[in-house]
Amino acid sequence: MQATNAKLKQGRGVIERYREYLPFSDSTPIISLGEGNTPLIHCAQLSKRVGRGCDVFVKNEGVNPTGSFKDRGMTVAVSKALERNASALVCASTGNTSASAAAYAARAGISCAVILPAGKIASGKLVQAFAYGAKIVAVNGNFDDALRIVRELGERDGFVIVNSINPDRIAGQKTAAFEIVEVLGNAPDFHLLPVGNAGNITAYWAGYQEYYARQRTRPERQSNGSTRLPAMIGFQAAGAAPIFHNRIIENPETVASAIRIGNPASWKQARVAIEESRGAIDIVSDGEIVVAQTWLARHEGIFDEPASAAAIAGLFKCRDSKDARYSFKEIPEGSRIVCTVTGHGLKDPDAMQEQMEALIPVAPVTSEVRRLLGL
Ligand code: AN7
Fold first, then answer.
1. What is the pTM of this model?
2. What is the pLDDT of residues 59-93, one digit of tens each?
3. Ligand 1 centroid, distance to 142 Cα (angstroms)
4. Long-range contacts of 152-160 (CB under 8 A, 24+ apart)
5. Cα–Cα distance between 78 and 68 in angstroms, integer?
6. Is 60 exceeded by the pLDDT of residue 12?
7. Which residues have C-beta within 8 Å of that of residue 15, sequence separation ≥ 6?
8. Predicted confidence (pLDDT) at residue 1 exceeds the cutoff of 60
9. How many Cβ atoms are within 10 Å of 45's Cβ, its own excluded?
10. For residue 354, what pLDDT is reported?
11. Residues 338, 314: contact at Cβ < 8 Å?
12. Which of 4, 108, 134, 227 is the most exposed place for a label (fewest CB within 10 A)?
């Protein structure tokens, strides 16, 4: 059965690859879609833009099975839910958590209820929740209202919350940091990522710390070890920046609907990650986000969703702006920088609506086409 074994290996997800770092016993069922093992892409144009011989890498989480980093946490949360005989999942979401929860619930053969802020979910993500057969409730409120309701619904019998307040989600998501250390041979000097509910920055920091601790206690495991810890630099959208401003934002607003969150669940843990790593939390405007999204697609061939582009906009800010909380002007020569692209650009096609509408068809005549191409 060699062919079968090869196939099984190819589809291995984060639980099979990192079981010893996860809360799993031999009898825990595994619900996986082959998530993780995403490319860490060296970006020549981004590196040039930063200068000083720095190398910038993008960890492209947009190529996960449902198109975002949430799948890493969901495979663990749903597998653990099954171990506890759960019959239903529930989550609040700005879109990606619900897409991922719905897919893994379908795979596990259990039901999934998703509570969404009405009119604020990117169309690609809403399509996914419908496709995977979730029970969908839209509330006239924002994500923070939806999460409050989910908490109030509570962990009733057979019912598991799969937002990042569930520690199994964080445990799964920390595997992205492991993969980065393995590819680079060490942790990077800086790690930039968007911050919404602040679960991911918490998870990455946990992952980097865990590999660092292992290296110190078990140095024979060179290939898995890291001898440094990165500075964690998180970016919020300017209109949805509770951690940056150190206060709850009642009516968060941003084009990056995934991070339109005013009261993050992992606020304290994010603060700890930023302080312990000597990193920073900063803001980027919607305008900067849109520019960065287009720039990355056109210069590196990586199409990310607006929330993810906040990290790229943040990189530009660190490089170019006097107002940056963290300046890359004095960055040590040859530093390694990783930016996480958290979700795929196809999730949010509405962002390109205007350009798509401007496409007026012409007669199928070569001379017409030539004229439009300016040839
Ligand atoms: C693409 O789906 O909160 O700071 O409900 O979808 O860990 O919340 C999504 C968040 C960044 C922020 N990038 O991560 C949800 C949700 C993308 C996202 C974030 C989200 P966290």
1. 0.95
2. 999 999 999 999 999 999 999 999 999 999 999 99
3. 14
4. 153/90, 158/85, 158/86, 158/87, 158/88, 159/86, 159/87, 159/88, 159/89, 159/90, 160/77, 160/81, 160/84, 160/86, 160/88, 160/89, 160/90
5. 16
6. yes
7. 22, 24, 30, 32, 75, 76, 79, 172
8. no
9. 13
10. 87
11. no
12. 4
Q: Which atom of ligand 1 is nearest to the CA of 96?
A: 2
Cα end-to-end distance, the chain, whole Å: 56
What does the pLDDT read at residue 39?
A: 98
Look up residue 230 and give its DSSP letter: P
| pLDDT score at 221 | 53
**252: amino acid identity, one letter:** P
* pLDDT band at 158; cut points 50, 70, 90: confident
Residue listed under structure tokens 């209820």: 113
* Residue-level pLDDT at 9: 53
Please name the amino acid found at residue 54.
C
Q: Which of 235, 316, 334 is nearest to 46 (CA)?
A: 316
Task: Please list, in sequence order, all residues whose beta carbon lies within 8 angstroms of the beta carbon of residue 117, skipping any fewer than 6 positions away.
Answer: 94, 138, 139, 141, 142, 143, 145, 146, 260
Q: Ligand 1: which of 74, 200, 344 to mutate, most ligand atoms within 8 Å of CB?
A: 200
Average pLDDT, rounded, for the chain: 94
Using alpha carbons, select from 103, 68, 66, 42 the residue that is nearest to residue 305. Answer: 68
Q: Which residues line ligand 1 (CB under 6 A)?
A: 68, 93-97, 164, 194-200, 258-259, 305, 307-308, 342-343
Instruction: Provide the β-strand partners of residue 139.
Output: 117
Query: pLDDT tens digit string along 281-309?
Result: 999 999 999 999 999 999 999 999 999 99
The amino acid present at 373, given as its one-letter code, is L
Strands 40-42 and 135-139: unpaired
Cα 259 to ligand 1 centroid, rounded to whole Å: 6
Tell which atom from ligand 1 comes closest to the C-alpha of 343: 1
| Paired tokens of 315 | 């990189």
Residue 359: CB atoms within 10 Å = 6
For residue 180, give the nearest of 218, 135, 229, 139 by alpha carbon.
Answer: 229
pLDDT digits (tens, 9 = 90+) for 327-373: 999 999 999 999 999 999 999 998 888 888 999 899 999 999 999 99
Q: How many other β-carbons are positioned within 10 Å of the β-carbon of residue 102?
A: 29
